[in-house]
Amino acid sequence: LLEISNYINGSLYGSDKLVASFSIDSRTIEDEDVFFCIKGKNYDGHDFIKDSLKKASCIITSKDIKNINLNEKSYIKVNDTLQALQKTSEYVRNKSAAKFIAITGSNGKTTVKEMLAHVLSDYKITYTKGNLNNHIGVPLTLLSIKQKDEIAIIEMGANHEGEIDFLCDLAQPTFGVITNIGKAHLEGFGSFEGVIKAKS
Known about the structure:
This protein is α/β, with parallel strands linked by helices. The chain contains 8 helices and 8 strands; from the N terminus they run αββαββαβαβαβαβαα. Helix content is about 35%, strand content about 15%. Helix 2 (about 50) links the parallel strand 2 and strand 3. The longest helix is centred in the middle third of the chain and has 14 residues, at about 80-95.
């Protein structure tokens, strides 16, 4: 984390290194993004390092980069790229002076988030795009926070106990909104009482 934080302190916080944003998708990566190679169920971001280097300024990887021309670009090797994404998002969140509003519930999260973002649009805000509300989406939202933001609206979803707790540890919300508690994802929570406990 120290090496990553030293790198991203670049254009985010005033030095001369170029960091535009953060990405886990080589198809949508923008110039000077930091690219995290995340391994999912269907794809492994490490397979797209060569493509991502066309635009990325830095690659976060759990593998050595061999036989690829880095062309004066950087890469940082970590043990676990998902954990690195989450820890980096926590670091960026801790740099922010914004008020954080976390929204969860069995349904209605995205609608309430969009309503709040509209009502608070006179402020400088960042909010969850789409429904990126899980252990990957919340860190990506936190990593999109700008230094001058006054409010951040973070949507949080869960399908098992402990997930909201973990996301709250990352986002450290100032305010919490629970839209409702219903009988959703019972296979992960075990019971309706499990849903109540997790959302609370």
